[in-house]
Automatic annotation (TrEMBL):
Signal peptide boundaries: none
A Pfam match: HTH_11
Organism: Paractinoplanes durhamensis
Name the UniProt record assigns to this protein: Transcriptional regulator
Residues of the WYL domain: 138-203
PROSITE patterns associated with the record: WYL
Helix-turn-helix type domain: residues covered: 6-62
C-alpha cells in the first residue's frame, strides 16, 4: 500500500470506530508499518486539516471527530467517473491538486461496492492526450486563499524579467492559459500575470489591504466571462 492510500485508509479506520481511539501500535500492526510511520502519517493528516487528535492514558490513542468527516456518500459509479473526467481537464489550473484530493476523499467515502464499480468503469475510459500543461506550483495555486503579499519573478511577452510584489485578487481561466489578477506594487495598478510566465514565488508575512476587483479592471469583454458558481 502506498502512502497516499494508507493515509486515506487511516482516516477511514478512525472514522469507523469514532469516537473510540486506536493506538499507534494497533494502527501500525493493522497497516504493517512501524509506529514511527504511523506517527508521521497522523502528523501529515493533522497538518492537512484532518480533525485527528490524541487521547492520553492507558486506553488512549488517536481519535477522529466524526462531525468533520464525510459519511458514506451516495455517489453513483458514473458520477464518480464523471468527476474524474472533469478533473482531467484541470491540468495546469490553480485547482488541479485540490480537485484530485477532493476526488480521492469522495471515492474513499463511497460505499465499498460502488467505489469498486467506479474504479472498474474508470478503467474502461480512454482520454486523448492533452497538450502538456505545466503544473502550477501549489503556493501559486493557493494565492487567493492564503491572503498574503507574494513576491514573484515574472517574464513579460518579450521575455524581459522583473521582480514584483503583488496582492492577488482573482484567477481568470482561458482556453489555453490561466492568469492571476493582482494589484502590482511596482506598477501601482491592477495587472494580469500569465501563470506559466511566473518562474518563482515567495510568500511574505504581509497581509494585503482589502481591495475590490472592479469590472473595468479586466481587459476582457464582459460577455466572454462568467462567474464560477457552487450552486
Amino acid at each position: 500500500m502506498n502512502r497516499t492510500d494508507r493515509l486515506y485508509a487511516l482516516v477511514e479506520e478512525l472514522r469507523a470506530v469514532a469516537p473510540r481511539p486506536r493506538s499507534a501500535r494497533w494502527l501500525a500492526d493493522r497497516f504493517e508499518v512501524s509506529v514511527r510511520t504511523v506517527e508521521r502519517d497522523i502528523s501529515a493528516l493533522q497538518q492537512s486539516g484532518t480533525p485527528v487528535y490524541a487521547e492520553t492514558g492507558r486506553t488512549g490513542g488517536y481519535c477522529l471527530d466524526r462531525a468533520h468527516t464525510l459519511p458514506p456518500v451516495n455517489f453513483t459509479p458514473s458520477e464518480a467517473v464523471a468527476m474524474a473526467v472533469g478533473l482531467h481537464g484541470l491540468a495546469g489550473s490553480p485547482f488541479h491538486a485540490a480537485a484530485a484530493t477532493a476526488l480521492r476523499k469522495l471515492v474513499a467515502a463511497m460505499h465499498a461496492d460502488d467505489a469498486a464499480r467506479a474504479r472498474q468503469l474508470a478503467g474502461r475510459v480512454r482520454l486523448a492526450a492533452q497538450p502538456p500543461a505545466a503544473e502550477m506550483p501549489r503556493v501559486l495555486a493557493d494565492a487567493l486563499s492564503m491572503r498574503r503579499v507574494l513576491r514573484i519573478r515574472y517574464a513579460d511577452k518579450t521575455g524581459a524579467g522583473s521582480v514584483r510584489e503583488i496582492e492577488p485578487l482573482a484567477f481568470v481561466g482561458m482556453p489555453t492559459y490561466w492568469y492571476l489578477v493582482a494589484w502590482c506594487r511596482l506598477r501601482r495598478s491592477v495587472r494580469v500575470f500569465r501563470t506559466d510566465r511566473i518562474s518563482s514565488v515567495a510568500v511574505t508575512a504581509e497581509v494585503p489591504p482589502p481591495r475590490e476587483l472592479l469590472p473595468g479592471d479586466l481587459d476582457v469583454p464582459g460577455d466572454r466571462m462568467s462567474e464560477l458558481s457552487l450552486a
